[in-house]
Design brief:
This protein has helices spanning about 1-15, 20-25, 30-50, 55-75, 80-85, 85-90, 95-115, 125-145, 155-180, 185-210, 230-250, 265-315, 345-355, 410-415, and strands at about 325, 330-335, 335-340, 360-365, 370, 375-380, 390, 395-400, 405-410. It is α/β, with parallel strands linked by helices and about 425 residues long. It has a four-stranded mixed β-sheet with strand order 4-1-8-9. Strands 5-6-7 form a three-stranded antiparallel β-sheet. It has a two-stranded antiparallel ribbon with strand order 2-3. Helix 6 (about 85-90) runs antiparallel to helix 7 (about 95-115) and helix 11 (about 230-250) runs antiparallel to helix 12 (about 265-315). The radius of gyration is 26 Å and the shape is elongated.
Length: about 425
């Protein structure tokens, strides 16, 4: 049963829609690698506690390097790394405190270094508190979405999901404390309550790291669901723990499940089968939503190829150093699933098409306006995170993707007709 549930956790994590941009959006591969390095560090550290002397020190140092590498790839694992020491203290007692303190200090310093070199401005003051409230408000909805992915969970659904989780885990904890469970059932419940507690800590740590970011919260769609890369797998572990505990409690109610008795293997086997069935239903919901999400990302890729094709057909090979603006092109195929929407993505696509890194290209998106200056135009765009985008006269081209037309902006007169 343990292998069955471990396999279920792995499978559900792979298809979890709550963080699927990290698997269907190619540039998010590093985020998955970041979490893998963090988890690898945990495994190495646990092995280190079973050693003594230089070998133990070497393994702890290796675990620390894995943690720092994880943060370097994606700083969202930072809080999870800091909280990891709780696991070691629970398992190893006081002797883990020194290791935790050293690794936490190194991780905190490195996290401060990494986050100080980013163009994203972190939130402060009241804005930080408001966003913390948003993250906390959306967390129960994320839990409900992890239970049944298709559809948008309502407030009532989120409340019911939280109450169901609390009811199962609370019942298991109370019966374990009272000693009213059969011996085998008590072992199962104790083990999986521990997993549930660890999952809650991990999910909280993952969401804590997105609180300073105005760009991420648990229920944002599309590319923004990368903010659940740590919390999402933790929710899968939590739901599996809830299903296992619920199954164990059901099995304990059968004849032979009296307190102090070993419990009936047949009853526990049936409970494991029911638990697996419940997880399969959850997985079916994941697969349904993932199919929809993958379709949106595939359509975005097809649209990107079409837009690049239209630009290439209209302009041919443009001179080095040219600036290209695309207009009347789709920006998204679904909420949060971009076609060309950032100030860098169209340029990258055209650079690859023409093998020319000197090109500049910007999609015109959202509310925009163009100022016609003396030597060139200035595009004030909805995506100008780096400031207004400039194009000199004579080497700037505008392509109307919808109509298949293009214009070379060679002066103020041409600029005025855009």
């Amino acid at each position: 049963a343990e292998r069955l549930f471990a396999g279920a956790i792995a499978a559900l994590t792979l298809i979890l829609p709550l963080a699927d941009s990290t698997r269907v959006w190619v540039c998010m591969d590093a985020n998955v690698g970041s979490v893998a390095l963090w988890l690898g560090g945990i495994l190495v550290a646990l092995a280190a506690f079973r050693r003594r002397g230089r070998r133990a020190a070497l393994l702890h140092a290796t675990a620390g390097l894995l943690y720092l590498s994880s943060i370097a790839l994606y700083e969202i694992t930072g809080a999870a790394v800091l909280a990891t020491g709780l696991l070691f203290v629970v398992r190893e007692g006081r002797r883990a405190l020194v290791v935790w303190a050293l690794q936490a200090l190194a991780a905190a310093l490195f996290l401060a270094l990494v986050t100080s070199h980013t163009f994203y401005e972190p939130l402060h003051g009241h804005a930080l508190l408001r966003h913390a409230g948003t993250v906390a408000h959306e967390a129960p909805r994320a839990l409900a979405d992890a239970i049944w992915a298709p559809g948008d969970p309502s407030r009532l659904g989120a409340l019911l999901a939280c109450l169901a989780v609390l009811l199962v885990l609370g019942t298991g904890a109370v019966r374990l404390w009272r000693g009213s469970l059969a011996e085998h059932t008590a072992q199962v419940v104790r083990r999986w309550l521990g997993f549930a507690a660890g999952a809650i800590v991990a999910a909280g740590a993952g969401w804590a790291m997105i609180v300073p970011s105005a760009y991420l919260s648990p229920m944002l769609p599309g590319q923004a669901n990368r903010g659940n890369i740590v919390a999402g797998p933790a929710l899968v572990v939590l739901l599996t723990a809830v299903a296992v505990v619920a199954g164990a409690l059901v099995a304990d109610r059968r004849p032979g499940g009296r307190a102090g008795s070993p419990g009936r293997p047949g009853a526990m086997g049936r409970a494991a089968a029911l638990t697996a069935l419940a997880l399969a239903v959850v997985g079916a919901g994941y697969a349904t939503q993932l199919h929809r999400d993958v379709g949106a990302w595939n359509r975005a890729s097809a649209e990107q190829r079409r837009i690049v094709g239209v630009i290439a057909a209209q302009l041919g090979r443009v001179p080095a150093g040219s600036t290209i603006l695309s207009a009347a092109a789709p920006v998204e195929t679904a909420p949060g699933v971009p076609v060309f929407a950032a100030p860098w993505d169209l340029a990258g696509a055209l650079t690859l098409r023409w093998d020319d890194a000197s090109l500049r290209a910007y999609p015109i998106v959202g509310d925009w306006r163009i100022a016609c200056g003396r030597s060139g135009l200035v595009l004030h765009n909805a995506n100008d995170v780096f400031g207004p985008q400039e194009g000199p006269y004579g080497s700037t081209y505008v392509v109307d993707v919808a109509r298949g037309r293009s214009l070379r902006v060679d002066g103020r007169k041409a600029c005025g007709v855009i």
